[in-house]
Amino acid sequence: MNLDKIDLNLLVYLDVLLRERNVTRSASLLGITQPAMSNGLRRLRETFGDPLLVRTSEGMVPTERAQTIQPLLRQVLASVEQVIEPITEFDAQSSDRVFRIMTSDYGEATLLPRLLNRLRKEAPDVVLDILTPSDMSFQEVEQGLVDLVINRFDTMPQSFHQKTLWRDSFSCLFAVDNPLTENFSLETYLEARHVWVSKTGMGAGMGITPKDIKRLGWVDEALEAIGVKRHISVFTRHYQSAALLSEQKGLVATIPTKAASAQSENPRLVMKEPPFHVPDFELKMAWSPLLQHNAAHKWIRGVISEVAQDSA
Fold this sequence. Notes:
Number of strands: 12
Strand order of the largest sheet: 4-3-5-12-6
Distance between the termini: 54 Å
CATH class of the largest domain: Alpha Beta
Helix content: 40-55%
Number of domains: 3
Radius of gyration: 24 Å
Oligomer: single chain
CATH topology of the largest domain: D-Maltodextrin-Binding Protein, domain 2
């Protein structure tokens, strides 16, 4: 393959086609006609000697060669964009850019209100599009379809850039009329009924059962380490729901301290340190290497880091 015979526009076409998997939609996004896009796909197939996209009953599906090409293609195009992009500072005050941030409701409840206060002063027209971790996969984040992922991670692709925003501990919430207020010990904790909250990861979530200790997360792993189990009555994926449920007599929610502290002025709840050791965890910010040098992206990362540091 001779580089002087490759039309760079074709690589842009291929990038959009592999992402959209639809000729008509890809043509619309690029502002060209459908026949022009179809012709571009034909030329790409000739260039690579591979069908690249195959029509099936489920729509157009990338071939194995195309799947191998896709991440490399994104890196190439990102490098080209970096070369030709003018060296300018990001003007936050006048920008109306949309930043897509994927985070759990923990990050949404603890970090985002402070971030929005800062943005209202420095970048009043900047828009945040908040996605949940189940909305997209690590692969899609790696392709730069999301600006940032803010969450707690067990694993992360090695290609990602990351930064720790803060460390957090765990606290227990329960109603003021719960008998635990008079005698809160490991024994009474284990006798109580509990609200479980997901340590939300990436990708679509699945159902869970009390017997699935390895998937239950930090609190239950800490209990397993000392040879005991708690009685889980409710499974939820939202920390705010867990806090509300803990107002019911007899229920206990063990959640991150920063999330629990949001209920500090709630007269119906008591907040206590767990009667056993639960390791602290880190809230991290991660992003695709494709966005590492983007001026706007560097700005929002800096703002988030400062807001997190002030909140730590």
